[in-house]
Amino acid sequence: MAISTKAIFGKRALYQLPAGDYAEWAGEMLVQGYDSYSLRILAGLGRLASTFEAEDYFLRSARELGLSIPDAEAAVRAYACEVAQQIAGGQLAGREGVRELYRVCIATEYDRDYLIWLELDDALDSLLSGAYAHTFEAATLENFDEVAKREAEKFIVEVCGQAAT
Fold first, then answer.
1. Which one-letter DSSP state was computed for residue 161?
2. Could you say which of 42, 65, 88 is where a domain stops?
3. Selection from 45, 5, 48 nearest residue 29 by Cα
4. What is the pLDDT of residues 66-118, one digit of tens each?
């Protein structure tokens, strides 16, 4: 799955963005018909390029394309909501989505809005090790993706302020 602009902004705000993700985003933007001098350079950077160089070309690309960069909190929330939408819509497996949103929880220093993902991640770790999921008692390995989907739908309504689609 291609990395979205919301994901770029969110992961950038969380300091979780390697150069390769910037390049992947730029390539996808070119495929979608966007074009600028810096975007083409960014798309051509390799996965081993300097993150600082990629960040510089990303900022230039954003300016050239007229993209406004949201503040960190808004960027993280939009990214988390996008991941939750992907879980709810079945484009992202519950386990994978929970792991990603757990990283958001940690990076936001356990922001209250993201604590459910910490609980679900702990439950998943317990279940995978053969133990009882004390932090989320309704979860089992068999129903984990469905539990994650239900929690994603709640998250979308309560945190994102919209109905799950």
1. -
2. 65
3. 5
4. 999 999 999 999 999 999 999 999 999 999 999 999 999 999 999 999 999 99
